[in-house]
């Protein structure tokens, strides 16, 4: 074969280029540790998503330390949850699957990007060093309103992040003179103990209770309300735990023996 | 007339077939290209006359008509020309040849009508599934049947070229395969190899499922089989452009092909490596292990080799021509090239664009950097340089030479043709650079709207408005160029016969086939190795996909996600699935 | 087949054979292309890509460089 010297040099240079490209990609995998989406997370029957241990209640979970898991279900034309909040300085593993057709889960302006294929689970581990707000979009055509499929990912400063939830049980109406109870359920999604204070404000009164909620559990905080102190009428109340609050109104009604009066669970 | 020696004088019957194939191609280009303008103006929000939900019907038609119909109709014409010209014999049986052409036409019409059903209420079909038809998005069965007919038509066309070669070989047992025929046959061989995947996907999985014979599909399996075909198909379009660069550009430059042996090596490499690379379109797919992705990347990277070799050989051939025409100096010879010839200039500019496309292709091939660009507008920028310029502009430039050859009529307006190829180049420069850059800050492909509700795109350089302006301007220039091309073709065809048609020839070689090892012509050997490489690259990934999800998947039904037809049904199903 | 190849080229001023032809201009152009490819590759990988963090990393792999290389 009659190959010109220049051409032989170019052939060698081309091989150097090719090997150099493969070497760069390999460096990316072993240096910065970039991993590809793969088959580790296994497959799933899309019809069984609502009964699936991982995907039945999609959202953020604390694994321990600075590690979190986020499960996301994609469907035409939304993500569930639509808004995700994780702390900075965290290592977050996303599990994403689809209920219907092929979607993607792509965090705009980052290298967090995966196809979401029905029947498959995409697993990605990402380190979030800095706080920031990102859009999430679907970049695979998924039907007529594909362009409306979006979500949000908020990476908040570490000290602003928690997985606390507050729900309050309170009666609407109580007979004057009776005592009643307002119960705050404080749940802690983090693995560490949560030490906090629950505060009830009602009328002019305010009461506080210190509470410690163990990791991944719920505590009940009961506030006893004496209607004698409040008097008849409507009283707005607010329960506050850290940044969370829930409000309502308690009506204290005159206990005049009228058959229609039926409120209150007091024991007097 | 007696002195004229154009293709139509040598092979009048074949010339009619090639003409028909070219016109089918131009019709697809006219419709598909115009739809491109509709999309570009809509998505950049400059001019809107369709609803955003219909954007995807338009996009499906644009993709299928340009990526499949325009390219393949043109290339069956070129390959028929290449085989008959280089073997100096006609096709064996023209009835057979018209039969495959007709099959391709019927397939296209079925596909076209089913797509059109997405916007025309009186057609009770839809195929809003885009060019990639990823299940479980489901099209009307006519769409899949049409695709199969079209592909089988190309198989028969390939058989036609092989028959012609076998007949020639019987009479010339000791001759080397002429280069244009060699290129056609190697390309046809990998086309057979890769289309097996999509044929299997359609006939075994998608068609029975769309007809309700089986009630489930494995989305990852059908997707993997699509990409088994989906990357090789780009080389199917590209090889005829390469052929033009190898055998026409040197002649147009006034020289000879630098090396026939290296041209053969290049086409053998494409036969070997075109197919076992498809998984590089699935770098971000779950359900495929990283190791298989790495193998696909290695194959893809080595597939750069034949293209890099081509760059050298083709430019060296042009330089040879320029120096024979009196060009001198290190780079001064560039001025001696025939820049006033639209055929030369079109092909040279297409080659230049392909050098740029080569770069974005290298990025796309890099496994982990795919996180940055996957399914962004960058990808669209890339393939508008490859199929949209390297292939399309080469084909249009080639048409300025071929249409006179197959009709015996002189090109209507050479200056207009020169302006047209320049305009295409300029238009694509605007559109493609903007698309590439926008991908780097995350603008997605395949979407009808320029922005989202909850966040803004943040370009590192430039603005979203400037990107959109460049895309819209580029698309407008491209559409004007398209119209000028079609005008020139129509006026040429309705013009009168001319004696001034150049002879039907292609470039000679500086280093000829006698320098090429005989083993290069052993098509059986290369086909066997290509098959082994495909088996290596695909057996394990396919086995693990079928093992995990089953051949027909876990009860995954078809979706035709539209709320235009019956909102109640969709709302009900949404309520059903809400946790 | 020989009859099909180009023999006459009207504007040709000289004939150059394979052995007497060094495509030096091509070597220069392709050398420039090579440099562009290498520089753009490095820019794309190390600035555009690694600077575009956060990036997907393996859960168990040590992170040596972090993601903010740029």
What are the key terms here?
heterotrimer, B: 579 residues, mainly alpha, Cytochrome C Oxidase, Chain A, 19 helices, C: 70 residues, 1 helix, rod-shaped, Cupredoxin (chain A), transmembrane helix (chain A), Copper_CuA (chain A)
The CATH architecture of one domain in chain B: Up-down Bundle
Helix percent of chain B reads 55-70%
Instruction: Quickly count the helices of chain B.
Output: 19
Strand content of chain C: under 5%
Please write the string of helix (H) and strand (E) elements of chain B: HHHHHHHHHEHHHHHHHHEHH
What characterizes the major β-sheet of chain C?
Answer: none
What is the overall pLDDT average of chain C? 76
Main sheet summary of chain B: 2 strands, parallel
Name the CATH homologous superfamily of one domain in chain B: Cytochrome c oxidase-like, subunit I domain
Provide the structure class of chain B: mainly alpha
Strand content of chain B: under 5%
Query: For the largest beta sheet of chain B, what order do the strands appear in spatially?
Result: 1-2
What is the secondary structure topology, with strand pairs?
The complex is a heterotrimer of chains A (268), B (579) and C (70).
Chain A: H1 5-30, E1 59-64, E2 67-75, E3 78-80, E4 83-87, E5 90-98, E6 103-107, E7 113-116, E8 122-128, E9 132-137, E10 150-156, E11 164-169, E12 173-175, E13 179-188, E14 194-202, E15 205-213, E16 217-226, H2 227-230, E17 233-241, E18 244-253
Parallel strand pairs in A: 2-5, 4-10, 12-18
Antiparallel strand pairs in A: 1-2, 2-3, 5-8, 6-7, 6-9, 9-10, 11-13, 13-16, 14-15, 14-17, 17-18
Chain B: H1 7-10, H2 12-43, H3 55-87, H4 94-116, H5 141-171, H6 179-210, H7 219-230, H8 232-247, H9 249-253, E1 257-259, H10 260-273, H11 290-302, H12 304-324, H13 342-365, H14 370-373, H15 377-407, H16 414-440, H17 464-494, E2 509-511, H18 523-549, H19 567-577
Parallel strand pairs in B: 1-2
Chain C: H1 24-49, E1 56-57
């Amino acid at each position: 074969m009659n190959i010109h010297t220049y051409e032989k040099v170019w052939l060698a240079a081309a091989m150097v280029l090719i090997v150099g490209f493969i070497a760069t990609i390999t460096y990316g995998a072993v240096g910065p540790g970039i991993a590809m989406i793969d088959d580790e997370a296994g497959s799933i029957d899309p019809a069984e998503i609502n009964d699936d241990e991982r995907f039945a209640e999609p959202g953020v979970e604390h694994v321990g330390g600075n590690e979190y898991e986020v499960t996301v279900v994609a469907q035409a034309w939304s993500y569930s949850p639509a808004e995700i909040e994780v702390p900075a300085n965290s290592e977050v593993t996303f599990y994403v699957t689809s209920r219907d057709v092929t979607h993607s889960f792509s965090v705009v302006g980052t290298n967090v990007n995966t196809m979401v294929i029905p029947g498959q689970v995409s697993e990605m581990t990402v380190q979030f060093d800095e706080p920031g707000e990102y859009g999430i979009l679907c970049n695979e055509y998924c039907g007529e309103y594909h362009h409306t499929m979006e979500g949000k990912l908020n990476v908040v400063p570490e000290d602003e992040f928690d997985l606390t939830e507050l729900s309050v049980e309170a009666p609407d109406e109580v007979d004057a003179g009776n005592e009643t109870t307002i119960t705050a359920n404080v749940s802690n999604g983090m693995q560490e103990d949560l030490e906090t204070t629950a505060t009830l404000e009602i009328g002019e009164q305010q009461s506080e209770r210190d509470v410690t909620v163990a990791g991944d559990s719920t505590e009940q905080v009961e506030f006893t309300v004496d209607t004698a102190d409040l008097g008849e009428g409507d009283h707005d109340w607010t329960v506050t735990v850290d940044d969370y609050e829930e409000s309502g109104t308690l009506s204290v009604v005159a206990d005049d023996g009228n058959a229609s009066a039926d409120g209150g669970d007091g024991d007097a | 007339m007696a002195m004229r020696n154009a293709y139509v004088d040598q092979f009048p019957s074949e010339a009619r077939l090639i003409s028909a194939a070219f016109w089918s191609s131009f019709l697809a280009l006219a419709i598909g290209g115009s739809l491109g303008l509709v999309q570009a103006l809509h998505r950049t929000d400059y001019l809107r006359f369709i609803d955003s939900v219909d954007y995807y019907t338009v996009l499906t038609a644009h993709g299928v008509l340009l990526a499949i119909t325009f390219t393949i109709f043109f290339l069956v014409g070129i390959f028929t020309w290449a085989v008959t010209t280089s073997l100096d014999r006609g096709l064996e049986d023209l009835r057979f040849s018209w039969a495959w052409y007709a099959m391709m036409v019927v397939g296209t019409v079925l596909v076209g009508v089913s797509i059109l059903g997405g916007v025309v209420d009186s057609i009770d079909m839809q195929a809003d599934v885009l060019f990639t038809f990823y299940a479980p998005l489901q099209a009307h069965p006519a769409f899949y049947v049409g695709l199969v007919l079209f592909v089988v038509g190309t198989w028969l066309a390939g058989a036609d070229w092989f028959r012609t070669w076998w007949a020639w070989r019987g009479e010339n047992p000791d001759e080397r395969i002429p280069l244009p025929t060699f290129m056609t046959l190697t390309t046809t061989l990998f086309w057979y190899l890769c289309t097996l995947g999509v044929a299997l996907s359609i006939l075994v999985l998608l068609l029975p499922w769309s007809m309700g014979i089986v009630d489930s599909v494995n989305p990852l399996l059908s997707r993997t089989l699509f990409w088994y075909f989906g990357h090789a198909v780009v080389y199917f379009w590209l090889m005829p452009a390469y052929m033009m660069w190898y055998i026409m550009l040197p002649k147009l430059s006034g020289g000879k092909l630098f090396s026939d042996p290296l041209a053969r090596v290049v086409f053998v490499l494409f036969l070997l490596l075109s197919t076992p690379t498809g998984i590089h379109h699935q770098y971000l797919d779950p359900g495929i292990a990283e190791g298989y992705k790495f193998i696909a990347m290695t194959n893809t990277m080595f597939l750069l080799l034949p293209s890099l070799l081509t760059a050298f050989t083709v430019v060296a051939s042009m330089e040879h021509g320029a120096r024979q025409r009196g060009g001198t100096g290190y780079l001064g010879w560039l001025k001696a090239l025939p820049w006033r010839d639209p055929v030369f200039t079109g092909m040279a500019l297409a080659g230049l664009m392909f050098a740029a496309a080569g770069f974005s292709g290298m990025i796309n091939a890099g496994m982990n950097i795919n996180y940055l660009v996957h399914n962004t507008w960058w990808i669209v920028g890339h393939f508008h340089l490859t199929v949209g310029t390297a292939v399309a502009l080469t084909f249009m430039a080639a048409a300025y030479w071929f249409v006179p050859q197959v009709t015996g009529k002189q090109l209507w307006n050479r200056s207009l043709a020169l302006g047209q190829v320049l305009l295409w180049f300029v238009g694509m420069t605007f559109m493609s650079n903007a698309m590439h850059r926008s991908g780097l800050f995350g603008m997605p492909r395949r979407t009808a709207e320029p922005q989202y509700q909850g966040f803004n795109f943040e370009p590192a350089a430039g603005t979203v408005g400037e990107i959109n302006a460049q895309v819209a301007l580029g698309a407008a220039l491209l559409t004007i160029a398209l119209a000028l091309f079609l005008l020139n073709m129509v006026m040429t065809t309705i013009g009168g016969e001319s004696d001034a048609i150049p002879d039907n020839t292609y470039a000679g070689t500086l280093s000829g086939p006698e320098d090429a090892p005989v083993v290069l012509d052993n098509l059986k050997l290369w086909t066997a190795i290509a098959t082994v490489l495909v088996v290596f690259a695909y057996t394990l990934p396919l086995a693990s996909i079928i093992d995990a999800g089953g051949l027909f998947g876990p009860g995954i039904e078809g979706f035709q996600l539209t709320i235009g037809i019956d909102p109640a049904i969709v709302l009900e199903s949404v309520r059903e699935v809400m946790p | 087949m020989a009859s099909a190849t180009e023999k006459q080229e009207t504007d040709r001023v000289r004939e150059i054979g394979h052995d007497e032809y060094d495509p030096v201009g091509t070597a220069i152009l392709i050398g420039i292309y090579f440099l562009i490819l290498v520089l753009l590759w490095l820019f794309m990988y190390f600035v555009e890509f690694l600077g575009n963090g956060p990036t997907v990393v393996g859960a168990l792999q040590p992170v040596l460089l972090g993601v903010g290389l740029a």
